[in-house]
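Dear colleagues,

As part of the handover before I leave the project, I'm documenting each prediction I ran so the next person doesn't have to rerun anything. This entry is a single chain, and its sequence is reproduced below.
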Amino acid sequence: MPDAMDQKLDELLRYPDAGAPNDDLFVVDVMRQVAKERRTRKIILFLFGSIGAIFGLFGAILLSDSISHTLTETVSAMTWVQIPLLVAGAAAFYTWVMNDDLQLGN
């Protein structure tokens, strides 16, 4: 894949073979082609990001009933009290084991 990108970049930056290159036209042409490639990249990212978001929403809808059942009936109120305690304990243990100093702002 990097070879294809290098070849594409070389193709974009190559001077035309016919005659002496006109610097201004060459630069404008290269910038136009770069802008076209950026637009193509943005379109592809938007398209696949939208498809991923649709599948994510669909999955969330399918799982919403089982998640709500889990949160309301399976997990007790005491568990909701213990979760922040466990998170704080894990953070303190990690800081102690990794010997990290917490950076506090001035």
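The chain has a mean pLDDT of 78. The helical segments are 2-13, 23-74, 77-98.

All the best with the project,
I.
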